[in-house]
Design goal:
Elements (H helix, E strand, L loop, with lengths): L27 H10 L5 H4 L1 H6 L9 H9 L1
Length: 72
Amino acid sequence: MKTNPGRFFEDYRLGEVIRHAVPRTVGQGERALYHALYPARGALYSSDEFAKSVGLAGSPLDDLVAFHTVFG
């Protein structure tokens, strides 16, 4: 039995759409802070030039940034 009415990780399902009352945009500031706290694991996430050399417009947001933003 849960003591907290909130949801845990295992309560979410693939493809589920979650509508928040206050949407959040994760941008370059959050990326910089995240990379200062948790250094990038690869060149793709830390270098725009490297990302451009493999055909991307810029370096993508590290997948764990989204995870940590959503799940804490």
